[in-house]
Amino acid sequence: MKVKDVMHKGVDWVSPNTPVTELAKLMRGHDIGCIPVGEDDRLVGMVTDRDIVCKGLASNNFDAGLATARDVMTEGIHCCREDDDLAKAVHHMEKLQLRRLPVINKSKRMVGIISLGDVSHSASGDLLSECVKSVSAHH
């Protein structure tokens, strides 16, 4: 099975200058836990709901009215390709302890995201079990 068979398709990204309040509203409105961040036509980071809480709300002197995606995002992007075998992507998620991975095509354009939830619907029990154990381990 290929990544493209199980991923969420048609994912958008936001600018690093997007207000955190807008990110939170997007997450709530789309019922998602992360949003990729792009600049100059390339992915530069990811903001998760946990990033907003831990890097934002829980930090000293955080002003939610002024904060942007750049202030709370995790820089750097790990991704997989849409034509990768699902097992390869899952092992990549395990190794990096990631719950979600952006998916790119041959032209290096983001075409979706694969999440543990997506994997849970399609992967074998053993593959899923190992992935959940690794990803959920305390970092």
What key phrases describe this protein's structure?
single chain, 139 residues, alpha+beta, CBS-domain, four-stranded mixed β-sheet, three-stranded antiparallel β-sheet, 6 helices
Task: Describe this structure as you would to a colleague.
- The chain has 139 residues and is an alpha+beta fold.
- The protein has a single domain (3-136), classed as CBS-domain.
- The protein has 6 helices and 7 strands, in the order βαββααββαββαα.
- The chain has a 4-stranded mixed sheet with strand order 1-7-6-5.
- α4 links the parallel β5 (80-81) and β6 (100-104).
- α4 (86-96) runs parallel beside α6.
- The protein is globular and about 45 Å long.
- The mean pLDDT is 86.
- Keywords: CBS domain.
- Pfam families: CBS.
- Residues 7-64, 73-130 form the CBS domain.
Strand count: 7
Q: Quick one: biggest sheet?
A: 4 strands, mixed
- SSE pattern: EHEEHHEEHEEHH
Helix content: 25-40%
* Mean pLDDT over the residues: 86
- Give the CATH topology: CBS-domain
CATH level 1 name? Alpha Beta
| CATH architecture identity | Roll
Oligomer: single chain
Strand content: 15-25%
Q: Could you say which overall geometry the principal axes of the C-alpha atoms support?
A: globular
Q: Between the first and last Cα atoms, what is the distance in angstroms?
A: 29 Å
CATH superfamily: CBS-domain
Number of domains: 1
How many separate helices? Answer: 6
Whole-angstrom Rg: 15 Å
Which strand order does the major sheet show? Answer: 1-7-6-5
The unreliable regions are: none
